[in-house]
Amino acid sequence: MKRKVIFDTDPGIDDTMAMLLAHASDQIELVGITTVFGNATIENATRNALYIKQRFGLTADVAVGADTPLVVAAGEATTSVHGENGLGDIDIPAGDYQGIDKRAAHDYIIDSVKAYPGEITLIAVGRLTNLALAVEKDPGIASLVKEVIIMGGAFGHNGHTGNVTPFAEANIIGDPHAADRVMTTDWPVTVVGLDVTQQTVMSSEYIERLRINSARYGEFIYQITRFYADFHKREIGMDGFYVHDSSAIAYAIAPELFDVKVGAVRVITEGPAIGHTLLKEGAKSYPIDEWSGKPQQRVCVQVDHRGVLDLYMATMAERVTA
Fold first, then answer.
1. pTM for the structure as a whole
2. Radius of gyration of the chain measured on its C-alpha atoms
3. Which InterPro entries match (predicted)?
4. Are strands 61-63 and 120-124 parallel, antiparallel or unpaired?
5. pLDDT tens digits, 35-67
6. Is residue 255 packed enough to be buried (19+ CB in 10 Å), middle (13-18) or exposed (0-12)?
7. First vs last C-alpha separation in the chain
8. Which of 54, 57, 48 is closest to 24 using CA atoms?
9. What is the set of active-site residues?
10. Does residue 100 sit in helix, strand or coil?
11. Coil, strand, or helix at residue 150?
């Protein structure tokens, strides 16, 4: 049976690559796409989702989500990484992209989870505002969600700690209050953070092979990643780019590619360490312990990076002949 997925996203180049992986996989039924501000404005993120839906024949619903975090200021879209339009400044045909669900993203999540109790996996690869709003409005959905998979955070494994501050990852610091709410809700969360996403790199040679091997998706992915690859080369001298959001989809398809640790997770919501994700392992009690009594969540700490790359390549190529 396919895993029913609502993909919460701010597309975004790597978000779009992950969305297409979910669409191409025979293990996933992409039920819905909910948009959030982050890599692009909420308007561009939603337009991009609708454009991808139309261009590649996705059947998923699209619902517009939050453009403002719960508490902190929204900041600016990360156009230096993803381009002004969010898709590497490729030419997106002008048009009135139709098909937006009338419900706000958090209401769409609530209704869908209730319609398919125990079946929906929420995969969130942007700020966690929509998920936090959903569980705040209707806490009862927590017991009905199959799993929550998050691309975000950094716990210091493999030398990876943060990419916005020394200790904070972009999605988490973008709305730390929402992230802490999602992490401490009693539903099964798996965090796919920088600890593993920065262990997997799509090199320029890999993207060239994908361009050749995937007749349906390859050329499009090549075009949108030119801007993204240039950013990584300019900023850190990398040939290629990290595989962030697609790693969350890879976990949903093949969790055996990842090693995890289990414990309570909290997010720092103020001060110089704002956005820092912290995992408490074990049952030891402390005199002051804001992790005590919180649900046990899963944090990915190691990955078979070659397995993730092989999975992506095989999935995107095989869909052509389906």
1. 0.97
2. 18
3. Inosine/uridine_hydrolase_dom, IUNH, Ribo_hydro-like
4. unpaired
5. 999 999 999 999 999 999 999 999 999 999 999
6. middle
7. 18
8. 57
9. 10, 244
10. strand
11. strand
